[in-house]
Structure formats: C-alpha cells, structure tokens
Amino acid sequence: MSLQFLADGLVAGATIGLGAVGVTLTYSILRFANFAHGEFISWGCYLTLLLAGAIGAWLGASVTPLGALSIGPNVLAAGLLAMALTGLLAIALDAVLFRRLRRHGNSITAVIASFGAAMALRAALEAIFSSRPVYLSADLQIAIRVGGLRVTPDQLALLGLALLLIAALQLLLARSNAGRSMRAVSENPALARIVGIDVAAVIRLTWFIGGALACAAGVMLGLVVQIRPTMGAELLLPLFAAAILGGIGSVPGALLGGLIVGLAEAATVQWVGAEWRAAVAFILLIAMLLLRPAGLFGRPA
Amino acid sequence: MNAAPLGLRVKNLQAGYELGSPIVRGVSIEASRGEIVAILGPNGAGKSTLVKAIAGTVPIESGEVRLDGEDITARPAHRMAGGGLAFVPQTDNVFTTLSVADNLRIAAHALSAAQRRARIAAICELFPDLARQRGLAAGRLSGGQRQMLAVARALIVVPKALLLDEPSAGLSPKVVAELFAKLVEIRAAGVCIVLVEQNVRAALDVADRLYVLVEGRNRLEGVGRDLLADPEVAALYLGGAHGMAAGMNR
Predict the structure, then answer these.
(1) pLDDT at residue B239 is higher than 70
(2) Chain A residues in contact with B18 (beta carbon < 8 A)
(3) What ipTM does this complex have?
(4) N or C: which end of chain B has fewer CB within 10 A?
C-alpha cells in the first residue's frame, strides 16, 4: 500500500490550515463567516508574484534558487512583503465595508457583503493580471525520497514554514497581551472595552493576521498549482470545513482541521478517484456538524 | 493647587440607548474620594443606565461627568479604566474562558511588565482566595468568587473611582457581607465608590450617602438611615416590594 498521499496531503493540508486560521479568527472575533477570505489567498499569491519579479529585476542576474528549493531569495522576500500587504488589504476591506456594516447591520449582512467583496476582489485580479495561468517558479523539482515517500524540497520547506507560522501565532495568542486581548474580545467585546481594550485595534490586528496567513497559504498554493484569480475561491470550502472541523476560534484546531481535510482529499485522489476530491471537504463538514458541532477543539456554545 | 473637588461629579446627565428617548433625564450626583455612595430606586429608575453612561458604555446626550476635576464626558469606554474610572457591570463581568490570572493580566495590559507584576501581586494580597485559584478558568468560579474577581480586576488600574452595578445581585447574604467589607477596605485607600443597589439593607450598611432616583431623575438624597426614615422612601420601596411580593404570590 502506497502512502504517497501523506506527502501531498500534508502540504495541501498545511495550506488549508493557514487559510482556515484567518477564517476561524474572523469568525470568533467579528462573528461572521467571511466568504472573501479565499480572495486574500489569491491576492497574496499575485502580490508575491509581482514583488518577486520586481525584486528579481532589481537584483539582476544574481537571483539563484536557494539550496535545493525551486525559488530564490526574491520570492522569499516578496512573500514576506506580500504578507504585510495582504494584511493591510484585509484591514482596508474592513474599513471600507465591514466596519460600516458592524454599526448598523447584523452578521447576515456581513456574510452577504463578503460574497460581494469576494467577487469584486476576484474581478480586480482578473482585470489586472488576466485569467491566464502563471507560475511562481518555472523550475521543475526532482523529488527526493523520505521514508519511501517522494517529496520535493519545496514541499518540505513549505510544511515547515506553515507549522512555524502557526506555532508562532499560537504562542502570541496564549502568552502576549495582544493575544489575551483577542481572546477577551472574542468572548465578550463589551467587557473588553470596559477593561480598557481598544476593540477597534484588536479587530485590525485580527484582519492583519488573517490576511498575512492567507497570503502565506497563497504562496504555498502558488508553488504547487497554477496561479489563477480563482485559486483562492476554489479553496473556500476546504477552508471552512477545516475551521469548523477544528472548532471555531481554535488556531491549533484550524491547522489540524486543515491537515485532516488535506490528507482526506489526497487519500481520496489516490484510492477513490480524483473526481471525488471536491466532495471530501463537504462530507467531512457535514459529518462534523452532525456528530460534534463545536468541532474538535471548540467549546460548546 | 488644583481647586477642583476630588472625586466624581455628575451634573445634569441625560443619557439613553436611543437618541431622543433618554432613560436618565438630568441626574446629578457627587461622590468624593474615600466615600461610598449608593444609588437606589425602584426598577426602571435608570440606576444602571446612569453608571453605564458614566462609564461610557451608554451614549450621553447632555450633561457633564468630571473625575478629579477633569471632564471625561466624551471619553470612549476603553479609555476610562486607564484614566482612573473602573466599572464592574452587573452580569458577564469576568472573562469566563480566561484564567483568573489572565483576567487580572488583561486589565493590566497598558502597564509595563514590572508594573503589571507588582499590581497583580498587590491585588492577590488583597484577595487571597483568588490568588489560590489563579490558574482556574474564571467560568468555574462560584458567583461570589466571580464578583470578587470582577472587583479585583477593576482595582488593577488603581482607580480614582469605582462604579459597581448591583454587585450583590444573586449572592448569599454572607457573600454580600464579605464583598461589602472589601469595598470598605477599598474606600479606606481613598477610592470613591458609586454603588447601584436593589438590596437597600446591604447598601445602608456600607454607604456614606444615598441618592434615590425615580423615573430617571433625582428624587432624594441624604445620609444613610435618615433617608430610610423618610416616609416617601418607605412608600417607594415598601410599595414596590409589596407589589412585587403580591405579584409573586399570585
């Protein structure tokens, strides 16, 4: 029995997990399901592409791939910059759209608005970059063997990066002032204000983190698949499945949920057939909602 | 020297959840440093709305709130605690998913790490029962312990004024006595305490002065038991109490 699905599934799962963290944080702090989150993934990937090109041109011919990886330092630097920019994009979207709705509307209004925002963001990408697929790295990578599995150095590096980002976020939430404030706002925004927390600042931080991690997911995705304006939107269902599987509000839950969805999808492709792949997230989502609606790490409402 | 009187001065306050239909309709109260002032009145008198408006969580339409002479009428709620005005709401006044220690830490988030440790240590000395349960999620505390934690949390910032909205609600007489004994200790430190109470007897035991609100306006004010001897107060309260008892007996 080949366990090759483990390698593909873990990388896909880590990508989904990074995206799901943003979904789960937005949901627990702002109390609505943001269907525009997938667009942050696409935008993050395109911004990285744009910046990597610019940095590459600026550095000239000196850009060579890092070690065994298919990408050079320009992509790495571009990715970091793009994470910050995507975080700012998320804050900007909140400022022009969701913040106004919070004053008057309810969470249903915000969900519907997020559909609209998703379409606008995707259309903007298509207008700027066209829908022709592009690639972050043109190099073909030779897979190496790790315990009988074929993995590319890119895959290993990405997996490590995703785990590092999520561990850092979990540490921030558990130990820092900012993290405590986020947990406090998530539980009781009115009391948070009374104890002196600037709730607006916590909301901006939440959007920034969600946007930045979505960008990281976009870069991971962009190294594995073709870059197209719809790439993030296509990941939306797995993101929500992962967030709900892990329990809304739980960062480790989102990662675990992402890994479960990613592994299940890869196993399905390997053993059942690629046409069933898209159904897997749905099935997991429905099963979890029926059996344990609060999710793996969630607390019952 | 600052000639402004120390403590909380509320003048002609008009406030409510919806603009144009105020619940508090021109209330004035004063509470000096080192004084406990109780706000009494029948249900719907606007007592809770008054303290919420002072704390910045209910919009103020007109009037003025001054703390140690400084105008804080328009200050946003999240800057009140840092400015020396701490508020303990009636319900949901601790973060149940956070530990006791994190509830205290979060109130100290604007302080430096050293100051934060010092303040938390001082508060733990004042509330030894809480100190023993630092690691416990606040949601697992008893009602009385939660109320103590809410008060302890409010004291982290060394407030000039402490507002409490019906702190005795739902607590046993023994726990109420403990809580109010703590308030007396806090008063001794020079804090001005404003207390909204339904429990007239408990309020009388600790309050230096009392205000009675009716329908969003000042009705009476005075010193402790003198006020209870007032036939109007007796009518207000006993009338209300009898009405309630009759309603419950039906």
Answers:
(1) no
(2) none
(3) 0.89
(4) N
